[in-house]
Specification:
The complex is a heterodimer of chains A (210) and B (461).
Chain A: E1 4-5, E2 8-16, H1 27-36, H2 45-48, E3 52-60, E4 79-87, H3 90-100, H4 102-109, H5 121-130, E5 132-133, H6 147-166, H7 172-188
Antiparallel strand pairs in A: 1-2, 2-4, 2-5, 3-4
Helix pairs in contact in A: 3-5
Chain B: H1 11-14, E1 21-28, H2 32-42, E2 59-65, H3 67-72, H4 77-80, H5 85-89, H6 95-98, H7 111-114, E3 120-126, H8 129-146, E4 150-158, E5 161-162, E6 165-166, E7 196-197, E8 203-204, H9 229-232, E9 236-245, H10 247-257, H11 265-273, H12 291-294, H13 319-323, E10 342-344, E11 347-348, E12 365-372, H14 376-387, E13 410-414, E14 425-430, E15 434-444, H15 447-454
Antiparallel strand pairs in B: 1-3, 1-4, 2-3, 5-6, 7-8, 9-12, 9-15, 10-12, 11-12, 13-14
The chains are: A alpha+beta (210), B alpha+beta (461).
Chain lengths: 210, 461
């Protein structure tokens, strides 16, 4: 099952964007505009909804032939590409999205041909599956752990590393009592919400440097 | 390939002059024609890469221009617009990309660099203060006689003298200046560990185009360069950064943390950099400094990290391992051959011997000068990804211990083993040991290109 790698599912969806020359701005631009303004931190729709490890939405206008001699060729349509590393099963994942962020899904996909809306769950799932391509090979963002397990592991890693940094050279008896207390507190902590563990980086990335 | 035309390349590009004194003059051009006359007059002064068969000179002169300087020289628009974007923007506008934010942000820089007035860098190196003063006086005479350039500021730099002896140490006490890459065609005694690692474990010079414009680089391509080709060829790009060192902060941090590290203070200091303070690579000699290694060019830079994957000898985040990971990322080291830079420059300010009171506020630091064919791919990548980020080294958001822009949040992990003298250790709440006080990107042209600029012959058609 090439879409599935252990517990993780590699989802690829290509949705044709509505071609309507009377629409101003065009539907692809409306999608671009909406996507560009989405938050990427814990307020991201994919952080609010369950089960996404990593996701990307891209508007593909056309393909460009790079080579010599140049030749002109075109796609039949503009496409919205949606790629997601998620906890699979696909039905559960799509159901979770439709339940938690229907307004975002509708705002994005209403510009795509044949989109039925997220309120009709079965139609929504059928639509997404009709647009699905087999992923075959994908970047495994995680080592076969669910989103919840990963968030929990990051929380533990950070807490343990802080604990070590703050307890170097400490008297063993005190260390043990502190550790026991630390363990109790850590176990009692709720699993952090998706997106909040990423520290703020005041560096501009992307482009040719990376 | 045959040797390069050394008489057409500025000497500063091909060799570190190994002179203990330097003064960097920063110039402003008011009038394009007079500035060109100044450049023309200067041609006879500029030190080329020609061999010093008749003995080393007492002083050297080199020149480089900011993009604003080339605009002030009235180069054709078609040429000015053909320079790479990062050079056109200058270092200040690249601050967010470089992580020059917070205490390193341009609004914290020296006044010279907060303004956008620097048009040229005139680098004078000398073997004595007298020779330095004499040569700088000559430069001022040329500036005055041609009325072609205004001196905005001068930055002195010099080898630090400890116990009466000039050293290659910087203010934190580390011996510096070991590792510059070898390049194809550059006549220089080749040293193992300084070029690129070959699959059979030997070292070979990097492609010339990693240093000089107009030659094939490691990808077999010509580096992005301005038109006309002859303006770019045999030139390079120079990064100038004034890096202030908070000496009191460094010494206090080391003194406060060393008692908790059972390897001892000097070993902890060595873990920060990856070399003992005398320069011995800890990858080769993890337990003690060894002068027989530092004095032997066949050994002092001849090491790799693949046998130390978790960093028990040299920490994964140690400075030398971050900025030149050698084979640490696998693939026989091929991933780093397009990320190498050549370093020049000297410390500035008065050294303070260990044990004497030091302050953070004294003017003291390193004038960091780097040369590379592609600012974005080489210097900027190293600064962004390897100094101010840790992902390539699997260190998450950790930054370089000494150079990172930590803002008090940073963490540096010393990996260790079960030996009592090599324990794992975590340095946290890192302050900024080093702060940026200004600088810019410069184009360091060939002698031919200087002539074209000086005679108004730059023609992109």
């Amino acid at each position: 099952m090439p879409n599935q790698n252990g517990k993780v599912y590699g989802l690829t969806i290509l949705s044709p964007i509505i071609d309507d020359e009377t629409a101003i701005p065009s539907h692809d631009l409306q999608i671009r505009n909406y996507l560009a303004k989405l938050p990427t931190d814990e307020r991201s729709p994919f952080a609010l909804a369950p089960a996404t490890h990593l996701t990307r939405l891209v508007v593909m206008d056309d393909v460009i032939y790079v080579g010599m001699p140049a030749c002109e060729e075109h796609l039949k349509s503009k496409y919205l590409i949606w790629e997601s590393n998620c906890d699979g099963n696909l039905n559960t994942y799509l159901t979770g999205l439709a339940a938690s962020i229907p307004e975002h899904l509708d705002a994005i996909w209403s510009h795509c041909v044949g989109y039925p809306g997220a309120s009709n769950l079965q139609a929504f799932i059928d639509y997404m599956k009709a647009c699905q391509l087999e992923t075959t090979f994908f970047f495994a963002a995680v080592n076969d752990k669910s989103v919840t397990e990963t968030l929990r592991a990051l929380q533990t890693q950070r807490a343990v590393s802080d604990f070590i940094a703050n307890h170097q050279g400490m008297d063993p008896a005190r260390l043990q009592s502190d550790f026991n207390q630390f363990l109790t507190e850590l176990n009692a902590k709720p699993t952090p919400r998706a997106g909040i563990l990423t520290p703020y980086r005041d560096i501009k990335t992307g482009g040719r440097n990376e | 390939m045959s040797n390069l035309n050394e008489t057409d390349i500025q000497g500063f590009v091909l060799r570190g002059y190994n002179m203990p004194f330097a003064r960097y003059l920063f110039l402003h051009f008011e009038d394009a024609a007079r500035a060109a006359t100044f450049v023309h007059r200067l041609m006879g002064e500029v030190t080329t890469g020609q061999r010093w068969d008749s003995g080393k000179p007492q002083s050297t002169v080199n020149i480089a221009f900011t993009h604003r300087g080339l605009v002030a020289l009235n180069l054709p628009d078609a040429t000015l617009l053909s320079f790479p974007v990062e050079f056109q923007q200058g270092m200040k506008k690249r601050a967010e990309i470089l992580g020059d934010t917070g205490r390193n942000a341009p609004d914290q820089w020296d006044e010279l660099w907060r303004e956008d007035n620097v048009h040229a860098w005139l680098g004078v190196n000398a073997s004595s203060p007298e020779a330095l003063n004499a040569r700088c006086a000559d430069m001022l005479t040329i500036m005055r006689e041609t009325n072609g350039a205004i001196l905005l500021a001068a930055q002195d730099a010099a080898a630090l003298v400890f116990d009466g002896i000039p050293t290659t140490k910087e203010h934190f006490g580390y011996t510096d200046g070991f590792g510059n890459p070898d390049y194809l065609g550059v006549e220089r005694s080749v040293q193992p560990g300084q070029g690129k690692l070959m699959p059979n474990g030997t070292w070979a010079p990097l492609a010339t185009g990693e240093l000089l414009l107009g030659y094939a680089d490691e990808a077999g391509e010509l580096p992005v360069a301005p038109v006309p080709h002859i303006l770019a060829s045999n030139g390079t790009f120079m990064v100038y950064r004034k890096l202030h060192q908070n000496l009191a902060t460094f010494r206090t941090y080391l003194d406060e943390h060393a008692p908790f590290y059972s390897g001892g203070k000097e070993k902890l200091a060595s873990k920060f950099i990856g070399r003992w303070r005398d320069g011995t690579p800890i990858e080769l000699s993890p337990d003690h400094p060894d002068q027989s290694i530092t004095q032997d060019p066949n050994r002092s830079t001849n090491f790799t990290f693949s046998a130390d994957p978790v960093g028990t000898r040299c920490p994964v985040g140690a400075h030398v391992r971050r900025v030149n990971p050698r084979d640490a990322f696998g693939f026989d080291g091929k991933l780093i051959n397009r990320r190498r830079i050549t370093r020049r420059g000297l410390p500035y300010g008065t050294p303070v011997p260990e044990g004497e009171p030091a302050s953070d506020t004294d003017e003291r630091g390193v004038i960091f000068i780097a040369l590379n064919a592609n600012l974005s791919r080489q210097f900027e990548f190293v600064q962004q990804q390897w100094i101010n980020y840790g992902n390539d080294s699997r260190l998450g958001n950790e930054k370089d211990m000494l150079l990172g822009n930590h803002t008090g949040q940073g963490r540096f992990v010393v990996q260790g083993d079960t030996a009592g003298t090599n324990p794992p250790f975590v340095c946290s709440n890192l302050p900024n040991f080093v702060e940026l006080r200004g600088g810019d990107y410069f184009f360091l042209p060939s002698i031919t290109a200087l002539g074209m600029i000086g005679m108004g012959l730059v023609d992109p058609r």
